[in-house]
Amino acid sequence: MGTTRLMAAWIWHQEHVGREHMEFGDAAALVVCNMLFKKAANHLITYTSGANKTQIDYIMMQQTDRKMVKDVKVVAGEECMSQHHLVVADLHFKGTRKI
Questions:
Q1: Which of 23, 35, 71, 98 is most buried, judged by most C-beta within 10 A?
Q2: Rounded mean pLDDT of 9-33?
Q3: Beta carbons of 58 and 34 less than 8 angstroms apart
Q4: What does the pLDDT read at residue 50?
Q5: What backbone phi and psi angles, to 5 degrees, belong to 12?
């Protein structure tokens, strides 16, 4: 029952995400921010190795903070590690008042 909620949002992508990640995300009430926005396939690729290209790097946040996420994207041409491309989230923070 627990992981079903998380899997339903991105069932088509489950073969790339390990069961442990899904169980952890569900237990901690996290949402996979990469799945919140529709992107062209070439804008989802976070890992390249020879002819193999896939999305294996994710940004996860508390479900309660989901509205803060305005966009998640892979920065083309930027490698943060060998074969991994930089994944960036645009977040909107509400201002705080000083008391």
A1: 35
A2: 69
A3: yes
A4: 85
A5: -65, -15
CA gap 57, 17 in Å, rounded: 9
Q: Is the dihedral of CA 21, 73, 29, 1 positive or negative?
A: negative
Q: Which is nearest to 75 in space by CA: 57, 61, 92?
A: 57
Q: Which amino acid is at 88?
A: V
pLDDT in tens, 44-71: 888 888 888 887 788 889 989 889 999 9
Tokens in use for 93?
């923070």
Q: Are 43 and 8 in contact (CB under 8 A)?
A: no
